[in-house]
């Protein structure tokens, strides 16, 4: 089974983040990543998604609307970055995800029939998928809210990372550590996921807090370059390749420190673990080092984050079309309008 994003949790330098410290700063958000979060978490007791009377999914709209306004009210300038065409190297990952969701859906239906409450939620979340309709409605809502969104040419997290590495954004927001491999100087995790969460399969609750991962601090603590961090990712497994079975973070770090090229990494896997990569690691390295991205200028950024919300269109879309409570939506729309009015008074230099 292909690795679903590299796990660098034991190597990355992280610290708890006060959202207030992001006030006035631009954060490029991996849109698909947060949509998956909202669709996984915001569900009915039987695990089904929230829907309007026409059967349209609305779980993501609820999360996108209320959570975005909460962050904007705290001064965060959000830019959502949507995936474009996936890399050909990601084909195996996509196929594995589809298979995993199909199996989870079958398990979910069985759990519902047997009344297994804990299993219901677990398998319902695992069956989460993003459709064209979900993406389209998310973009429509963001447009009415005056929140800028970008369509990346390929990987959304690569585009968000590029914006951060070039100083167009202060940080990239994603749960995936692949964002570090793409070169994001700062990565915010749990931006839209903070709060008290139940651990899967256990009657235990934990507090999930936002945290900042610093690329330079991570590289400094490990004594390696970003290129070698990419090699670690390749050994552990990324969205684009399987990892080497038996290689953990410590072994991977030791291996890259004694290597001078990706060829050495290939030889290490072959000699020490009798393993040959299913894709050329050189292609994976090149994808992380030189991803397909779009150039974004400061002028485009300034124009994008200065858009004003359209309260009446928000209310029509959320309430008339999708059945949300008008009083609550109108209340939050007023909060959004006030917050956007305050941020629009700030110059572009204060956002960088």
Structure description:
Belongs to the XPG/RAD2 endonuclease family. FEN1 subfamily. GO terms for molecular function: 5'-3' exonuclease activity; 5'-flap endonuclease activity; DNA binding; magnesium ion binding. With 352 residues, the chain is α/β, with parallel strands linked by helices. It has two domains: 1-222, Rossmann fold; 224-290, Orthogonal Bundle (DNA polymerase, domain 1), CATH 1.10.150. It is 49% helix and 10% strand. The protein has helices at residues 31-41, 59-73, 91-114, 117-126, 132-145, 156-165, 178-181, 215-222, 226-236, 249-257, 262-273, 281-289, 298-304, 311-321, 326-344, and strands at residues 14-16, 26-30, 77-82, 149-151, 171-173, 186-189, 195-198, 205-208, 211-214. A seven-stranded mixed β-sheet has the order 1-9-6-5-2-3-4, with helices on both faces. A two-stranded antiparallel ribbon has the order 7-8. Strand 5 (171-173), helix 7 (178-181) and strand 6 form a beta-alpha-beta unit. The longest helix has 24 residues, at 91-114. The two termini are 40 Å apart.
